[in-house]
Amino acid sequence: MSAPDCDDSIFSQLEAFGHKKVVYCSDPETGLKAIIAIHDTTLGPALGGTRMWAYKTESDALQDVLRLSKSMTYKASIAGLNLGGGKAVIIGDSHRDKTEALLRKFGRFIKNLNGEFITAEDVGTNPRDMEYIRMETQHVMGVPESIGGSGDPSPITALGVFMGIKACVKELYGNDSLTGRSVIVQGVGHVGENLVKLLRDENAKVYASDINEEGVGQIARKYGAEAVSNSKIFEIDADIYAPCALGATINSETIKKLKCGIIAGSANNQLDDEIVHGRMLLEKGILFAPDYVINAGGIINCYSELMGFSKKRTMQLTENIYEATRNVLKLSKCENISTIEAANKIAEKRIADIKKVKSSY
Ligand code: NAD
What we know:
By secondary structure, this protein is of the alpha/beta class. The protein folds into two domains: 108 residues, Leucine Dehydrogenase, chain A, domain 1 (Rossmann fold); 195 residues, NAD(P)-binding Rossmann-like Domain (Rossmann fold, 3-Layer(aba) Sandwich), CATH 3.40.50.720. It is built from 14 helices and eleven strands. The strands form two sheets. The chain has a six-stranded parallel β-sheet with strand order 8-7-6-9-10-11, sandwiched between helices. A five-stranded mixed β-sheet has the order 1-2-4-3-5, with helices on both faces. Helix 5 crosses helix 11, helix 5 packs parallel to helix 12 and helix 11 runs antiparallel to helix 12. The radius of gyration is 20 Å and the shape is globular. The two termini are 30 Å apart. The site of nicotinamide-adenine-dinucleotide has 23 residues, from helix 5 and helix 6.
């Protein structure tokens, strides 16, 4: 899933990423400039969040939406959901440029796609924004619980990450108990805090770090974790590193420093370069739980909202992340390929198999 050269024409970029459709949405009256990318709909409608970001160039926005929508295809596939992959980006500052009119106009564009694309919240958008989009189209998930939606996905995402950690622990130590294991949680925001709680409930030793030092101190006190400086995390001798803040924290420099045996966290796109760093981790003997496999709780939550599943069913689907992670680790070991390559293979195979089923109708 590496990105093609930014200088490529739009059509060659679509071809390189394998996209089905890209829709440019423009409305000078509200200032809306958005791109909706539909990567693949073999398994079902393309579901993906709407990100609002002040991209420096339109080409940056296109690159981001193409990359993110493709990874949604893989995430839905490996989680066993009947969903395709899509994503949308609105170009603009979410604090300054976001208005009801802009969001509702954007909702009209989604409506015109007749259910081929379903959106949800992402960076720069929130459940309130989804309510505005819902005023124009039904094809939006993640609206507040008070109006029948699934609400905040973060506790479910944290549960999925927790299951992914346990699957890795089982692989490395022979049993999946976290009692006495040590975990560095980098980023204690919505997902990170819930993860700290789950880990502490199972008596793991938790080192918590965040750029927000006051916040991390409070969370450490609340759950009995140890707050550590963000600049010191790679010096800690812990069993597990759980990146729950930003992407690309695993690169050639940090891999040299890492002392842990397992990397498993919620942040999207943790490997700076999927192929290069995936293989470096394999060679160093560090088990990497591919982010899109274990952070699928958010999309599972949206899928449950779409299908009208109960909370119990949502939890069950999320707990399946344990088995999904085990399968990835097994294939990686069997074929001596990186875990990300193994995950991609499994996700692609499911799509190819279902494509065959559909073409035989
Ligand atoms: P959040 O914004 O609530 O929390 C992120 C935390 O990371 C914040 O506390 C922030 O201060 C901290 N942070 C930012 N930069 C940091 C740095 N350099 N070092 C240490 N801490 C830093 O976000 P979230 O919803 O908890 O999501 C965390 C990650 O998980 C993101 O990468 C997100 O894309 C991914 N994710 C979230 C969900 C979900 O359900 N929320 C689902 C899938 C993936």
